[in-house]
Design goal:
This protein is α+β, with helices and mostly antiparallel strands. It is 41% helix and 14% strand. It starts with 16 loop residues before the first helix and ends in a 53-residue tail after the last helix.
């Protein structure tokens, strides 16, 4: 496979020598475009020479069931092989099954985004909550999860996968119309859209970085190839429409990636390259250039983002490179061996499955007699009786080796029989099954860490894009069952205090069915689950958030009240509050040493804060003493104990007994106690 590249070389006749000594990313746009075109061509040849492209294509074919070179369908046909077509070629695709299990075990659980704010004040925490809602909305409504999972799937097949996230001004809702002048000076109206985040998954064939880099996290520039409709490009860049219309399309380019394996109709898409360089000492403003080849540069300017808009996921690193490694590479030979054994067994059964009969010469038995049901067959005893010819027997070593290869593939991939739904007979209890299945998840911990980093980087970058480019108000759905149907509006300014995104994937047990059942049962025994709906939610998702939503809301309310008390704002307690918890947390306001020092110096503002805080605590105390018991039950705090009975004063006469009701029934006599036995009691030494 070859990578398409133009033959133009960097550097023009008469070029100044000083320009050639510049950092390549600081050169003029035409020179940089030629330089990048040359680098891309050299990179493609390097991948081919090192056998990397061949490995990628082989993994692709195995994953999608095209295990034989002359196969045109995806594992849906039995092919003929051998010199005379005597072999029946079949596939048993363990390769895809194992990779799919790793993918599902890692990505099946909905990630929990924890947006972190710069400060812990109420406004920052509210912005963090808004950030959580935004990311949850993008995962569900914008289908961000599809692209993230697609990148993870590609990384398991090719060793690395990518997610590209950019701001696209042409997306979103239209919000205004502006007038511009065309080339002739005539006014033209153009619809302006609010813009939105655009996500895509470029393949490993389409992402080029400096091959001398040893750490992906330190990569300073990247070139990304995509395919766009040339007629749309020509309309957007009319000054270069002739060059754009003359470009080779996807169906005309040899070496466009794995799509070479597919039959394509005539396409209008042409390759477009985007060069991103982050802000560095050599490039203070960074650089972004959009070009089609060395002669067609569509845009050139500073990078619009704070970092490179491309994020990588890999199951494992190849030391000293930016390449990734996947266990699937170790499974390819095993899959081919499994296909050989399966084809051997099936070829034998297919060729000789119809029973043949040995008929000795001279026995006088015809073909028609053998095919007649309930026929009386006469034969010559001296010639011998007919016997079946057994040719379908396959050596048992083939079946044993087939099983060995299956177990070896499971061992190398870390996907055990329990995870594949075929547990060993010795594993019977749910706890044992959950433990064994969780071990399969733990084996993939390196891939899980890369998955979590991809989620964190993507989430942080999306919020950064919205913070920088979302100038118009837009709506987002609130997360949580309690907020079903609720929407909130935001602009980029409402995200200014957000710092980063943390993703919690939970423990491996919560990512397996057996593990989630065990967790739900344990929580039910401890009384943390109070409704059938909560039990079903934990069992199906492993998500414990519904169980702590009320606690989180209470803590957030207390924190807001503390901030209001410190600012001298009025705060009101109501029945049903967790009064004891409120009082304990409000006391933190007056526990500030600086506030105490100001009170000692007679600062009236500090004194007012202390007085109002203590008064608010007493307000909680009064409500706790006077509210109905149902409010204490709702808040989860014990009600106030009843006041003790007053003790009579010393020397005071005892109160008279209550009057006897003459109509009351007589008291029931107490039964007589049996006399205690005399003598020593059995089992009690020395007792009388």
């Amino acid at each position: 496979m070859r990578f398409h590249a133009h033959s133009a070389r960097w550097g023009a006749p008469g070029e100044d020598l000083a320009d050639r000594k510049k950092y390549f990313a600081a050169r003029d746009k035409e020179e940089l475009a030629h330089e990048l075109t040359e680098k891309l061509s050299a990179w493609g040849h390097s991948l081919s020479d090192r056998g990397i492209i061949e490995k990628w294509i082989k993994s692709y074919r195995l994953y999608f069931g095209r295990h034989y070179k002359n196969s045109t369908a995806h594992g849906t046909e039995i092919l003929k092989g051998g010199k005379e077509g005597e072999l029946s070629l079949v596939t048993v695709n363990h390769y895809r099954n194992l990779i799919k299990h790793i993918l599902v075990m890692t990505t099946n659980q909905k990630p929990t985004f924890d947006v972190r704010a710069i400060n812990s004040d109420s406004e920052s925490l509210q912005q963090a909550k808004l950030g959580n809602n935004i990311l949850d909305s993008y995962m569900r409504e914008k289908r961000l999860s599809r692209y993230l999972k697609q990148a993870a799937e590609q990384s398991l097949v090719f060793g690395k996968g990518f997610v590209k996230i950019v701001w696209e001004p042409s997306l979103g809702r239209p919000y205004t119309v502006e007038e511009r002048s065309d080339e002739s000076g005539e006014p033209v109206e153009r619809v302006v859209y609010e813009g939105d985040v655009d996500v895509s998954c470029p393949s490993p064939f389409d992402v080029y970085v400096d091959q001398s880099q040893e750490d992906w996290n330190k990569v300073e520039h990247v070139t990304i190839r995509s395919f766009r409709n040339k007629w749309n490009l020509a309309a957007r860049y009319p000054e270069q429409n002739e060059k754009i219309e003359s470009l080779q399309t996807k169906s005309e380019i040899d070496g466009r990636g794995w799509t070479t394996l597919q039959d394509l109709d005539e396409s209008n898409d042409v390759p477009v390259y985007e060069f991103y360089h982050k802000r560095t000492d050599a490039m203070p403003n960074g650089r972004y250039m959009l070009f089609c080849n060395g002669d067609t540069v569509l845009y050139d300017g500073p990078i619009p983002y704070q970092q490179l808009p491309i994020f990588r996921i890999t199951p494992g690193e190849i030391f000293g490179t930016t390449e990734g490694y996947t266990d699937a590479f170790d499974l390819m030979a095993i899959q081919e061996a499994i296909n050989v054994l399966a084809s051997t067994i099936f070829s034998n059964q297919n060729a000789f499955g119809v029973q043949s009969v040995l008929v000795p010469n001279g026995c006088n038995i015809s073909y028609e007699q053998l095919n007649e049901s309930l026929a009386i067959i006469k034969y010559n005893q001296q010639a011998g009786e007919p016997k079946p010819l057994q040719l379908t027997s396959t050596p048992p070593e083939i079946f044993k080796f087939f099983e060995i290869l299956e177990r070896t593939a499971e061992t190398l991939s870390g996907v055990n029989s329990v995870a594949r739904g075929n547990p060993e007979s010795s594993l019977k209890s749910g706890v044992a099954l959950g433990l064994v299945q969780s071990m399969a998840v733990q084996y993939a911990s390196g891939f899980q860490q890369s998955w979590a980093e991809l989620l964190e980087d993507s989430g942080s970058f999306i919020l950064s894009l919205l913070k920088d480019f979302a100038k118009t108000e837009r709506m987002v759905a609130m997360a949580g069952k309690g907020n079903k149907g609720n929407m909130t509006a935001f602009t980029g300014d409402k995200l200014k205090n957000i710092n980063r995104v943390i993703v919690e994937l939970g423990n491996p047990m919560s990512r397996t069915t057996a593990g989630r059942v065990q967790i739900a049962d344990n929580l039910l025994e401890k009384g943390m689950i109070k409704t059938p709906q909560e039990y079903v939610t934990v069992m199906e998702t492993g998500n414990l958030e519904p169980l702590i939503e009320g606690i989180e809301a209470t803590v957030s309310q207390i924190r807001t009240e503390n901030e209001d008390l410190m600012e001298g704002k009025p705060v009101k307690a109501i029945v049903g509050d967790a009064h004891l918890l409120h009082a304990q947390q409000h006391l933190m306001v007056v526990a500030d040493p600086e506030l105490r020092r100001k009170v000692a110096l007679g600062d009236p503002t500090a004194l007012k804060i202390v007085q109002e805080t203590l008064a608010h605590i007493m307000e909680h105390n009064e409500l706790k003493e006077t509210q109905l018991p149902i409010w204490s039950a709702i808040s989860g705090e014990p009600p106030m104990a009843p006041p003790p009975m007053p003790m009579p004063e010393q020397g005071a006469p005892m109160p008279p007994p209550p009057p006897v009701d003459p109509n009351a029934p007589p008291p029931i006599p107490m039964p007589e106690m049996a006399p205690l036995p005399q003598g020593p009691m059995p089992g009690v030494p020395g007792a009388m």
